[in-house]
Amino acid sequence: MADSQIAAPYTDFSAVMTGDKPFQLSGRPARYTVLYFYPKDNTPGCTTESIAFRDLHAQFQQAGTEIYGISRDSLRSHEGFKSKLGLPFELISDPEEAMCLQFGVMKMKNMYGKQVRGVERSTFVIDADGKLMKEWRGVKVPNHAEDVLEFIKSQA
Length: 156
Fold this sequence. Notes:
Layout: E1 14-17, E2 21-24, E3 32-37, H1 44-55, H2 57-62, E4 65-71, H3 75-85, E5 90-93, H4 98-102, E6 106-111, E7 114-119, E8 122-127, E9 132-137, H5 144-154
Parallel strand pairs: 3-4, 4-5
Antiparallel strand pairs: 1-2, 1-5, 3-8, 6-7, 8-9
């Protein structure tokens, strides 16, 4: 999906997230919201990426930013993943792919020589008005969380 096809500001949406809390894009109190889409809980790349955001969480908060991880995993899977890694932010469950489709992150990928449909690792920074500030697609995990934080700090 091309950038121009993505609604900006995004169509408001709500979703279920860990901590038995509802997520609503509109009315977020943070200056910036980071939504990072990842393929699956408890896989090496997704674990490494989540730990990187966890380790920088205090700096993101100092910059007026809230972080949310999103995948198609169940809420139960998310709760275990969050607890296991000690994540200080919530994870959003999107089993029907509503958010994945809105953000255009569903892609055909090669896994062990087979074509499978899955989530392309992607991150979006959205401001308090719902305007897309920056997006990263096809993310490589090393230094990604640092790059996102650097971008947010550059907006001050």
